[in-house]
Hints:
heterodimer; A: mainly beta; 5-stranded mixed beta sheet; globular; B: alpha/beta; 6 helices
Amino acid sequence: MKTFWWAALGVGLSGICLGAALDVGKDAANEQVIQVTAQRFTFTPNEIVVKKGRPVVLEFSSLDFVHGFNIPSLKLRADLPPGQITRVRFTPDRVGEHPFVCDNFCGEGHEDMHGRIVVKE
Amino acid sequence: MMQRRDFLRLLGVGGGAVFASGLAGRALAEVGSNKKAGAYDDFYFVQLSDTHWGYKGPANPDAANTLKNAVAAVNALKTQPDFIVFTGDLTHTTDDAQERRRRLAEFRDIVSGLKVENVRFMPGEHDASLDNGAAYRELFGETHYAFDHKGVHFIVLDNVSDPGARIGDAQLEWMKADLSRQKKNAPIVVLTHRPLFDLAPQWDWATRDGAKAIEILMPYANVTVFYGHIHQEHHHRTEHIAHHSAKSLVFPLPAPGSQEKRTPLPWDSAAPNKGLGFREVEAEVEALRYRITELPVSAS
C-alpha cells in the first residue's frame, strides 16, 4: 500500500475536518494560499503548482453549483457549496502530479471539469 | 437447456456483442452453478446502455439514428429475449427541465417499438442527477426496485439521483432488507449505472458509497453486477462478485485511466458505430462436465 504522504486537513468555514491534524498556527506564515474558482465546467486555475514541504491551503469559491473536489490519489475530497469559501489543507512531501476532478455531476460539461496539482522542489 | 449461440450483429458491425455466458465462470454462468444451488430456468435478457438520446456532437454524427438502429437490431434477433434492460443514461443531460422531459419521452417512444414488452429501466446521471430523478420518476417510475425472473433475483440500484454518486443509507437499508429474504446461495443480479467499485475515481468512475453495497452483497454466494456508465466492456471482480460493464450506444470512451481526460473516442467514418454495442446475457444451467486425471500404471 502506498504511503499516505501528505498530511491532509480540509476545513470549510463550517469547521469540518477531513484529514489528519496539522498545526495550522505554527505553519500559517509558511502556507501557500491559492484561490481556486469552481464554475461550470472548469476549475480556475486548473493546474496548481505548489512547493514540496510547504503547507498548502486551497481556498475554493464555487459560483454556481455544489461542485466536488476530489484527488483520489491523496484521498482528499470536499464539497464546494456556493456562497462560502471551502478550504482544503495539505502538505506535499514528494514531487509529482495529482489529477483532481469534480465528482458532483454538474451538467453537460461535467466530464471536462478536471485539473491537476503539480508538486515541485 | 438453451442451446442457441446466436451471436449478435450490432448495427451491421460484427463482433459488437458480448455473449456473457461464454465468459466461462465469470458471467451469468455463475449466477447459479446448478439447479440444486438455486433452481432457475434457462433464459436470456438483453442489456443496452448509455443511449444518450439527445446528444449532438462530433463523437457520433449519426446519434439521431443509433438508438433506432439498436431497437431494430434487437427486434431482428431470431429468438427474442425474455426481457430487456437499459442501464442508464437513457438521455443526454440538459439544464432545461422541459427539454429533459422531452428527451425522456422521445426515448420512451422509440423503445416502445421493441417487440419485447418486458423492458426494465434505470436512470444514469445524465437523466437524473440535475433534478434528483424527478423527471425520470414522472416518466419511468421508481429509480430502484427488485424483481424476480425464472428463479433469479434482480436488484436495480440507483447511484445517480444523488449528484454526488451516493446510493444513500435509505436505499442500502432497502437492499439489505430485500436480500434478507433471499437464500445465501440464491442467484442474484444487480443492475446499476455506475460501477460499484472504484474503477477510475479520477474520472468519476465510481460510486461514493459503493463499498457499502458490495459489503451487503458479499455474504451472497452468487452475485453478478451489470452496469453501464463507462461506455465500454469491462470485467472486474470484488472477491467472488463479478462486475461487467456494457458498451454504449452513442460513443465509446477510452480505457479507464488511460489518459488525462475521459474524452470520447473520435468517430471513425470508415467504421461507423465502432466501439458501440449491446449484449445478451444468458442464464443457463451449467452443463455436466467431466474432470479427467491421467494416472501412471505403477504407484509412485
